[in-house]
TrEMBL record, chain A:
Record keywords: ATP-binding, Nucleotide-binding, Translocase, Transport
Keyword ATP-binding listed: yes
Pfam families given in the database record: ABC_tran
Molecular function per GO: ATP binding; ATP hydrolysis activity; phosphate transmembrane transporter activity
Originating species: Micromonospora noduli
Gene Ontology CC terms: membrane
PROSITE patterns tied to this protein: ABC_TRANSPORTER_1, ABC_TRANSPORTER_2
Gene3D superfamilies noted in UniProt: P-loop containing nucleotide triphosphate hydrolases (3.40.50.300)
NCBIfam families xrefs: 3a0107s01c2 (TIGR00972)
Protein name: Phosphate-transporting ATPase
One example of a Gene Ontology biological process annotation: phosphate ion transmembrane transport
Domain ABC transporter: 5-247
InterPro entries in alphabetical order: AAA+_ATPase (IPR003593), ABC_transporter-like_ATP-bd (IPR003439), ABC_transporter-like_CS (IPR017871), P-loop_NTPase (IPR027417), PstB-like (IPR005670)
């Protein structure tokens, strides 16, 4: 299920603006990797280039090579929708489809893949909702609108929707920044369970969260506004938070650098 | 909320002198602390500060505005009621004078000494031509709207949107004349072709002449309602939250699947509203149909033979020569049109209302 993600010399642009430059990093299967760094340092841009969501924006493009298990996802022959099915994404703000019920939300990805049989969809929905720790809360109201759930539940619904299509890699772009501490804890617990099956890469502004959930941490930073973001240090989370080898990382995690 | 700071400021001026502090505010610190309060009561004398709260004003902009909006809301009801009463009062005498069944008689001669007129054919023609126009216009309009909102480069989209809005500003008589003098000949040729190859379908049967038909009228109507439906649906499609579009794309949707998953369901109430506005315009359209239709008084599903008529077109054609009963008969037909429009609107509301649980949480 889980696959290795490696980036080599990844550079991403928004039109003429270079947002990240020469990112090299390898993420092992079945681990949680946290991307941390100040705002505007390109963490999210890098994350979005891993499942080719970056290029959705007008004028945005990526250079360099990104592979999952040695297959280049930016290869000319690769189907971009297949890439996104293999590498799922959870967004910063919960974004369930407002016109769909809870059930329809969870199986939306499967339906896009042409699964029509009701029994298969029902099984998959239950499995995904259980995996997202949401089944108990919603099993009696699967027909109700997904947007009627609380923020934390909506985010878990979005996670269920993402893992229902059984991706290899799950990307999370600050998945807890719009949630209260209890919902945040629920999602962090969930990440622990999910890493048995998936490779997880998470962008977070919360350094305690990075320390709690991740096995490896990548620290991104920029020299000054307008410069491209670079990968400063990438190591085991414990090492990054106890004994970072780069001064800049230490400044950031101890709060001496904004 | 605003009370808390100045109370504590009073406390700060000194325990025993709290009550005096209003008459001669002693400390500069107190004045500074009270400054934000003064903005709330611009009268000047009552600087708040523990005194009685200012009384709410009985007459003011708030109340006046509420009255204005209430009056505007009431005016709508009054106008509609007035129209309905006018139509009924004028129509009843003519309906009494009618010597045939108003609902089933196929013909319109209310100016004779024995007035004969029936609404059946006209109502049928109105609904048929409008429905046909909508059937042709909606797919095209939605296609244009999706293209403008999600496929076209932004600049091109804006420019084309502007052009389409211009189409809505063309007077309907221009459409009518264009339909009668220019568009009718290709439609006639096409009708002949349809008749030759698909004449076995009753819709395209008949022996001619062809051209000034329901088909021509409906095509002209379709062009006329196109801009309304297009620009409204485009507006709605543009409002789809980016987060939902990205969610669909991140699940591996193609562009079209993304539109189907996120954009179209989100825009559904808006599309229905746009269709109803278009249908409203088509049902009430007068001069363009009076110029393009063949004007007959029979119920027929034949789309390509000369013929067809609608309530509004009939009013335009017959009003000039109508006598007292004739005008009453036309007004009665107007009342029926009023009722048809009402039913269409209620149906649309019902469709939107049925899914309110989902659309409300979307807002």
């Amino acid at each position: 299920m889980a696959k290795r993600v490696s980036a080599s010399n990844v550079t991403a642009y928004y039109g003429g603006f270079k947002a990240i430059e020469n990112i090299n990093l390898t993420v092992e299967p079945k681990t949680v990797t946290a991307l941390i760094g100040p705002s505007g340092c390109g963490k999210s841009t890098f994350l979005r280039s891993i499942n080719r969501m970056h290029e959705v924006l007008p004028g945005a493009r990526v250079e360099g090579s990104l592979t999952i298990d040695d297959q280049d996802i930016y290869d000319r022959d690769v189907d971009v929708t297949a890439v996104r099915r293999t590498i799922g994404m959870v967004f910063q703000r919960p974004n369930p489809f407002p016109t769909m019920s809870i059930f329809e939300n969870v199986v939306a990805g499967l339906k896009l893949n042409g699964v029509r049989k009701k029994s298969i969809l029902e099984d998959a929905a239950e499995k995904a909702l259980r995996a997202a720790n949401l089944w108990g809360e919603v099993k009696d109201r699967l027909g109700k609108p997904g947007a009627g759930l609380s923020g934390g539940q909506q985010q878990r619904l979005c996670i269920a929707r993402t893992i229902a299509v059984e991706p290899q890699v799950v990307l999370m772009d600050e998945p807890c920044s719009a949630l209260d501490p209890i919902s945040t804890l629920a999602i962090e617990d969930l990440m622990f369970q999910l890493k048995d099956k998936f490779t997880i890469i998470i962008v977070t502004h919360n350094m305690q969260q990075a320390a709690r959930v991740s096995d490896r941490t990548a620290f991104f930073s920029i020299e000054k506004t307008g410069d491209p973001g670079r990968l400063i240090e990438y190591d085991n989370t414990q090492k990054i938070f106890s004994n970072p080898s780069v001064k800049k990382t230490e400044d950031y995690i101890t709060g001496r650098f904004g | 909320m605003g009370d808390t700071p100045h109370r504590s400021a009073d406390a700060g001026t000194g325990g025993t002198r709290v009550t005096q502090s209003h008459e001669w505010p002693a400390g500069a610190s107190a004045r500074v602390a009270e400054a934000p309060v003064s903005t709330r009561s611009p009268g000047g004398t009552g600087l708040g500060g523990g005194g009685a709260l200012p009384r709410s004003r009985r007459f003011g902009a708030e109340r006046a505005f509420r009255g204005l909006t209430l009056a505007a809301g009431t005016a709508v009801l009054v106008i509609i009621a007035a129209i309905a009463i006018f139509l009924v009062v004028k129509a009843v005498p003519a309906l009494h004078a009618n010597t045939e069944n108003f609902w089933s008689y196929e013909g319109w001669s209310p100016n004779e000494t024995e007035p004969k007129f029936g609404i059946g054919a006209l109502a049928f023609g109105t609904v048929l031509s409008s429905a046909l126009a909508l059937l042709m216009a909606v797919p095209v309009a939605l296609g244009i709207a999706l293209y403008l909102s999600h496929y076209a480069p932004r600049r091109l989209g804006t420019a084309l949107g502007f052009l389409i809005d211009l189409l809505a500003a063309v007077p309907s008589v221009v459409f009518g004349l264009w339909g009668r003098d220019v568009f009718s000949s290709p439609v006639r040729d096409f009708s002949v072709w349809l008749n030759q190859h698909f004449g076995w379908i009753p819709l395209f049967g008949g022996d001619g002449p062809f051209g000034a038909s329901v088909m021509l009228g409906a095509l002209v109507l379709a062009i006329m309602v196109l801009p309304i439906i297009t620009s409204l649906s485009r507006e709605v499609f543009l409002q789809t939250p980016t987060a939902n579009e990205e969610a669909a794309l991140a699940l591996g949707a193609t562009r079209w699947e993304m539109l189907r998953t996120a954009v179209l369901p989100y825009g559904r109430p808006g599309i229905i509203a746009a269709m109803m506005l278009g249908l409203g315009r088509a049902l009430g359209e007068t001069i363009a149909l009076a110029l393009t239709l063949g004007i007959t008084f029979g119920i027929s599903f034949n789309l390509i033979q000369n013929g067809g008529n609608t309530i509004a077109a009939n009013i335009a054609n017959a009003f000039g020569e109508a006598n007292e009963t004739g005008r009453g008969a036309l007004i009665a037909s107007g009342l029926v049109l009023f009722a048809i429009t009402l039913i269409v609107n209620i149906t649309a509301r019902a469709i939107i209302y049925r899914r309110r649980e989902f659309t409300e949480s979307a807002a």
